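Hi R.,

As promised on Friday, here is the backbone we talked about, encoded as structure tokens. Could you run it through your design pipeline when you get a chance and send me back a sequence?
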């Protein structure tokens, strides 16, 4: 990734947990010729990931005398005694050419059998990412859902009068600055393949949409039409983006090819139409409009056409986001002066308020649909928070000294 200097890493505080948690023990990995402490790092990252999901109770292992690194060394009674249902063991060894081999096993304590085992041939700099990948394997094996610990998040941080578009690991570590500016940066959104970010920058004293490659660092202008250019949203196939322009009248929704050609107007109203987002199947675009008198969420075919109102609870509803399976619609709803994240079942219409407010904004689904990242206010500064789709697990992510907002959760990248 072509990047500049990073701001501080986000810190994660868990403020809730699921009703049922899987008790699991993660033994520090054994080392063979590895820098002391690295084996603790990989186990600590795995444990922190699982704990952060709210679905696991990570047990203390230091009280167990035997600390196995191989399946032949496991005494299952030791782990049953601390009520572990699952056990993770592993080791790290050096290979020629400054490489490492990381091996791990996930064991079922009750059945005294191996559930999964894998090996990774990596560089030392890939240890944290490998730990996230192992946590994803464990998560999927024990919950049946795809893990998202090895994904990345993007967000905007303001510090010392400068704005920075950051990309970090899902746990807030390894933050990298993609672009920095004295003028505001807003609305970052990931391409479906995770290699690019579209965003809006005011560096030319007006909002212009840029697309930045995270691989080459190359930046291109996607939309710089007369008036405002804002609210980019990628189509699921990555070939087009929905954007909002004011170059002909008030804010209206357009689509444009990813190379900046093929502009098409999708809405034609006297209202303000903004914040487009695509359904996962690419058939529809959901958006915010005040055409009914107050901001609500509407849906139209992705090629344009007649729009249907989707939200009816609340006098102020903005920032639509579709769950990865297309079954739920997240948005920000104002209730009694409090702005909160709400989730609507698109089949039943049932709505659940997930966050606590008072000034929550910019919801973004994890790629497995289990969590939503959003911006909030803590101590007068912008911060990031996450909440599970059932509302039970809540997290706060904060950056020391920074004002953080505009989060976007990146896709799962197959490697």
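Update: got your reply. Pasting your designed sequence below so it's all in one thread:
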């Amino acid at each position: 990734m072509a990047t500049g200097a990073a701001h501080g890493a986000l810190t994660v505080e868990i403020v809730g947990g699921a009703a049922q948690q899987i008790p699991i023990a993660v033994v520090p990995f054994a080392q063979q010729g590895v820098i002391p402490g690295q084996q603790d790092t990989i186990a600590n990252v795995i444990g922190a990931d699982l704990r952060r999901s709210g679905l696991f109770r990570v047990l203390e292992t230091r009280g167990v005398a035997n600390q196995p690194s191989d399946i032949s060394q496991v005494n299952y009674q030791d782990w049953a005694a601390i009520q572990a249902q699952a056990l993770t063991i592993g080791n790290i060894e050096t290979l020629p050419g400054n490489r490492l081999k990381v091996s791990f096993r996930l064991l079922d304590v009750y059945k005294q059998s191996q559930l999964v085992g894998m090996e990774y041939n990596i560089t030392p700099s890939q240890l944290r990412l490998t730990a996230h990948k192992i946590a994803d394997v464990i998560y999927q094996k024990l919950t049946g859902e795809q893990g998202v610990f090895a994904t990345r998040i993007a967000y905007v941080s303001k510090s010392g009068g400068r704005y920075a578009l950051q990309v970090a690991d899902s746990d807030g570590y390894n933050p990298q600055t993609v672009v920095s500016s004295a003028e505001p940066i807003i609305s970052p959104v990931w391409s479906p393949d995770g290699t690019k970010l579209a965003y809006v920058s005011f560096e030319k004293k007006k909002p212009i949409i840029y697309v930045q490659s995270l691989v080459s660092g190359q930046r291109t202008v996607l939309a710089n039409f007369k008036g405002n250019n804002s609210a980019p949203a990628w189509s699921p196939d990555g070939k087009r983006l929905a954007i909002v322009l004011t170059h002909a009248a008030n804010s209206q929704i357009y689509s444009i090819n990813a190379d900046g050609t093929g502009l098409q107007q999708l809405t034609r109203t006297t209202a303000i139409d903004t914040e487009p987002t695509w359904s996962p199947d690419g058939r529809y675009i959901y958006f915010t409009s005040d055409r009914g008198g107050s901001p609500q969420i509407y849906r139209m075919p992705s090629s344009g056409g007649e729009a249907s109102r989707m939200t009816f609870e609340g006098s102020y509803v903005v920032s639509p986001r579709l769950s990865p399976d297309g079954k739920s619609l997240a948005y920000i709803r104002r209730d009694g002066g409090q702005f909160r994240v709400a989730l609507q079942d698109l089949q039943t219409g049932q709505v659940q308020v997930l966050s606590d407010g008072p000034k929550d904004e910019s919801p973004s689904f994890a790629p497995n649909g289990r969590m939503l990242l959003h911006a909030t206010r803590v101590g007068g500064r912008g911060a990031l928070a996450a909440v599970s789709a059932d509302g039970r697990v809540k997290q706060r992510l904060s950056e020391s000294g920074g004002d953080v907002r505009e989060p976007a959760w990146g896709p799962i990248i197959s490697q």
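One thing I noticed while checking it: The helical segments are 38-52, 76-81, 127-143.

Thanks again,
M.
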